[in-house]
Amino acid sequence: MGGFFCVLFLLLSAVRPVHGEELELYATAAVLMDADSGRVLYGKNEDAVMAMASTTKIMTCIVVLETVSQDDILTVSAYAASMPKVKLYIQKGEQYTVRDLLHSLMLESHNDAAVALAEYVGKQFLPRELQEKDTSEYTAEESKMAMAAFAAQMNRKAAELGCVNTWFITPNGLDATEAFTGEDGSAVQKEHCTTARELARILAYCIRESPCRAAFLEITRTDSYHFSSNGRSYSCVNHNAFLGMMEGALTGKTGFTNKAGYCYVGALERDGRIFVVALLACGWPNNKTYKWSDTRKLMQYGVDNYFYRSFSEEGIAFDESRLNPIPVLNGQTARLGADASVAVRVAGRGADSGDSGAAEAGENGKNLEGLLMRADETVSVKYTLAESLTAPVAEGTPVGSVVYMVDDKICRTETIVTADGIGAVDPEWCLKQILDRFLLP
Q1: What's the rounded Cα separation, in Å, for the pair 212 and 157?
Q2: pLDDT in tens, 116-141
Q3: At CA 120, angle to CA 118 and CA 121, rounded to 5?
Q4: From CA 346, how far away is CA 351, in angstroms rounded?
Q5: Stretch 256-270: mean pLDDT, rounded?
Q6: Is 296 helix (H, G, I), strand (E, B) or coil?
Q7: CA 324 to CA 345: how far, in whole Å?
Q8: Cα–Cα distance between 176 and 361 in angstroms, integer?
Q9: What does the radius of gyration of the chain's CA atoms come to, in whole angstroms?
Q10: CA spacing 20 to 30 A to 74: which of 39, 130, 220, 335?
């Protein structure tokens, strides 16, 4: 493929972008995100790597939901039962449904429930003899192996979501550090951590993109949950006070450790707009309410200032008629001596709109026709296109991109692809051309 070059840069407004107002927040790091595009609408130290406490459990919950059935029954290990408060006080050898422990996890933030769930899922990735071994007979080391296998699934999911500064070690968010040996033989240490931006990204996935998003919302929005097991009765109450604070509050998860301070991640839906707020290190005792005031302030800022703007209605959408065919070197043509070329199109438009990955919006890859924006924000559009191609060229080959930018930051990318395929000139094609032109009537 030839080199890409920029052939268009179109400013769609002469208004100079104005940054939003400065908000006074208690949190050391904070983000207000558009859940549909992944765009950060307001940030404060949003890429600072920090501990996140029990907000970890949103990832624990979604990985469990995506891996096993809520009707599955698990057995408790001695290691899971040994977890510190806050806990459900499960005991070695007891059995619970995944559904019951997921409610324990997300409503009461029980640390022992988190480990029991992690062991149940994680053991499926261990050697066969440990998969078949009853969890109640696990040694502490075997339990840690299962938990590490689960953490690997959490980190795999984080990587899929583009979270490059997130690292999970525990399923409950307790502070932890682990050591590795680098490729050069050096010792490497990683802490259980994330950033405000990436924590918001994870919750956006849980409520908008995961195949288990409905189950995630059902669990995390439950006011109270009661169940009986092992001859005892349990009652779990939702401690997410934000659910009753603002109209449209969707979901959320609190967290606290001495290292992380008070943390929170939550979502709100209003008039078709979905906002996510993530807060890290939002005070320490006795500042337990700071996270609620910061959340309310950020959510209200989003509701008051950001509205959906359609690219097509505002004349921003890229016009495909600007795209000319690309010359194809050594390409087959209808007759000898003709120049080969291939038409191009923007993937994901019209009848092609079902193409997977055809268009991206911000960080979460959703195909959007517009964006949540302030009235004073400026959009610019540019496209790149290959100068030439060399046959053979398959239909749907990426040959360029259309990029939408807000205040010099990419908010959406569309891929330009070939509309047809074209074969390379070869002896068989040459023989056919000669026969058609000189020998056949």
Answers
A1: 14
A2: 999 999 999 999 999 999 999 999 99
A3: 70
A4: 11
A5: 98
A6: helix
A7: 9
A8: 34
A9: 27
A10: 220
Residues 6+ apart with CB under 8 A from 247: 270
Residue closest to 273 by CA, chosen among 237, 316, 236, 302: 302
| pLDDT tens by residue, 380-434 | 899 999 999 999 999 999 999 999 888 888 888 889 999 999 998 888 877 777 7
Reading the block at residue 20, the tokens are: 């939003």
How far apart are the C-alpha atoms of 299 and 217, rounded to whole Å? 19
Residue 399 CA to residue 365 CA, distance in Å, equals 19
First-to-last alpha carbon distance for the chain, in angstroms, is 39
The tokens describing 186, both together, are 């050096």
Mean pLDDT value across the chain: 89
DSSP letters spanning 351-416? GGTT-TTSEEETTTT---SEEEE-TT--EEEEEEEES-EES-B-TT-EEEEEEEEETTEEEEEEEE
Q: Are 157 and 142 in contact (CB under 8 A)?
A: no
| pTM for this model (two decimals) | 0.85
